[in-house]
Predict the 3D structure of the following.
Amino acid sequence: ESQLEQSLHNLQNENRSALADAKRHLASVENQLADALADTHHVEKSVQDQISDLQNELQMQRNSSDNVKRHHAKIVEGLKSDLTKARQLREESASSLQQDMEEMKAEYDESMIYYKDEVESLRSQLRSTKTRADADRKE
């Protein structure tokens, strides 16, 4: 009977020890889950911040592109005005008109090259921004 009581006592101690181990393991798992949840919230906030930054950058690029378009339109209007003046001068001097037209064409060509490069640069920046955003979302 004493041996039975001793065995029962040993089993109770083993059960208590196993229960304590299980509680410690459960607490560890709960801590890991809490840390993972905090990390998830942090990542979500970071991604939301990045999306907001990218949206702001995109809007700035759109505004910049709109400014370039408006400036280009002003240049075109200026060139149209210059062309009208050049036609009037043609009656006065054919050689003077030819020289003026060549100068205006060179300025126009330079402006077109410049603004085409600017527009392509903005498009490239936008593509790069979108690529980074896509990569950040995948992470």
